[in-house]
Specification:
seven-stranded mixed beta sheet, binds pyridoxal-5'-phosphate, about 475 residues, alpha/beta, globular
Length: about 475
């Protein structure tokens, strides 16, 4: 980094490849791509927590909107039409640019070509809006009054609030208490869009009261906020529950990221060697890689795909591939996934929104089948990479996205060793303006890393449901 611009202000940009590869409005995808159709080993079905039988449409539609429950169960249709109303909303902030990180390449002095797909160009500041608008649309179309959800870092709650106000739906958000306190401005954005925001665990639900009684002083977790949101939805007439990650339907909606990325790369005949994304519940990574994994599954192409997770919440790299509850209150269906156990609560000092105990069943299956790799990184090195990136590329990245930046930089530096000009593509999922408490900690040298011990994980695994 030290040599950047020293004595040489020139950035060499190729004549062929622009700094930003923009698509036309009519190149925004009109269909989502359902990678499950091409998977030989389908992701394991959701199970009814009481009977351990595969959850049926009738059961799922008690909790989820009917059309979304159908998408959840659809392993067969490779392409699903995006309704025109959703396409129109996408036009507000899509297509998202694919940026060639010329300045970062120079700063790293690497022969690698680095590209990032930037999903932070909307008020919610992340890719989550891609699914939020779809979920709000199907709820509205079904004639519901409103939806409930949880939010961790706050991006999902914000995206859903925006989407619900657009379709004039009621929106009740359970926000993990630690974020509610650390990110008061996120909360205000949600309220500005008309959402009702409650810190979780709360005394507004039975499960919240139970968790509060068992763990007084808890800072909350996603798993626990999910339980509260589900309870609220099923006990309130005209409401359903919506979720911002993990589920098959969410990953499906997020394939707009990968489809646009592929169109942009194809325009310039660029073949990625490495595709990198951060993995919380797996929706952005799943969406980014789906069209590429599809080619792998059909035996057409091969790519190196890397999922990056925090060392503080390492579901792929240290978790078990097993059926587990999606929530602490054990009210949701069981999902087979890489999991740390539904009672696992990552250390509160971890800033990012990658704190979920499990991982998308689709990604879990692809990982188990060897189509993708996974690695984990520590928080301080992530913020170092975020800062490096911000200083030369301009965008202040979200801490979550910076996990991908960190590994993209590492891969680019490996290319410097070997002299290879690999094409590295990573997902820049959002901006970090609401994460300044974490940036402040990093800038003040007060940020710490926390890595759970094997004993902690074993204790959590011991509570996995017996199948
Ligand atoms: C929520 C979020 C993530 C992680 O969620 P996934 O479902 O794994 O994509 C990553 N980046 C940002 C900016 C987010 O808001």
């Amino acid at each position: 980094m030290a040599n950047f611009f020293k004595g040489d202000l020139k950035i060499i940009m190729s004549k062929e490849i622009p700094y930003k590869i923009y698509l036309e409005e009519n190149e925004i995808p009109k269909q989502w791509y359902n990678v499950r159709a091409d998977m030989k080993n389908k992701p394991a079905p959701l199970l009814n927590p009481a009977t351990h039988e595969p959850a049926t449409l009738e059961e799922l539609e008690q909790v989820f909107c009917t059309e979304l429950a159908k998408q959840e169960l659809n392993n067969d249709d490779a392409y699903i039409d995006i309704p025109e109303e959703i396409q129109n909303f996408y036009k507000m902030y899509r297509p998202a640019p694919l940026v060639r990180a010329y300045c970062l390449e120079k700063a790293l002095d690497t022969p690698a070509h680095i590209y990032y797909k930037f999903e932070g160009n909307n008020t919610s500041g992340s890719h989550k809006l891609n699914s939020a608008i779809a979920q709000a649309y199907y709820a509205k179309k079904q004639g519901l009054k409103g939806v409930t959800t949880e939010t961790g870092a706050g991006q999902w709650g914000t995206a859903l609030s925006m989407s619900c106000s657009y379709f004039d739906l009621d929106c009740k958000v359970y926000m993990v208490k630690v974020s509610y306190e650390q990110k008061p401005f996120r909360r205000e954005v949600m309220r500005t869009y008309g959402a009702d925001v409650t810190p979780s665990p709360s005394d507004t639900t039975e499960v919240g009261r139970k968790i509060l009684a068992e763990h007084p002083g808890t800072t909350g977790s996603l798993g626990c906020a999910i339980s509260e949101a589900v309870e609220k939805a099923v006990s309130t007439e005209g409401y359903r529950y919506v979720l911002g990650s993990v589920l098959n339907q969410v990953l499906l909606h997020q394939t707009v990221i990968g489809l646009e990325t592929k169109t942009a790369l194809d325009k310039y005949d660029i073949t990625p060697d490495i595709i990198i994304g951060c993995a919380g519940g797996g929706s952005n990574l799943g969406g980014l890689i789906s069209p590429f994994v599809g080619e792998m599954l059909r035996g057409e192409k091969d790519y190196e795909i890397i999922a990056v997770e925090p060392k503080s919440c390492p579901s792929l790299t240290r978790g078990k591939f097993a059926y587990d509850f999606c929530d602490t209150g054990k009210v949701c269906p069981l999902a087979k996934m890489y999991t740390l156990g539904c009672d696992f609560i990552p250390s509160a000092n971890h800033a990012g929104g990658l704190r979920y105990h499990g991982m998308s069943s689709i990604l879990s299956q692809l990982y188990d089948d060897g189509y993708i790799k996974a690695t984990s990184v520590e928080q301080t090195e992530v913020f170092k990479a975020a800062t490096q990136f911000a200083r030369v590329e301009g965008i202040l990245p979200a801490p979550e996205s910076s996990h991908a930046i960190k590994v993209a930089i590492d891969e680019a530096l490996k290319c410097k060793e070997t002299g290879e000009a690999k094409n590295i593509v990573f997902g820049l999922t959002g901006t970090g303006y609401f994460d300044m408490v974490a940036y402040q900690k990093y800038n003040d040298g007060l940020m710490t890393d926390y890595v759970p011990t094997d004993e902690e994980l074993e204790a959590s695994f011991a509570k996995l449901p017996k199948m």
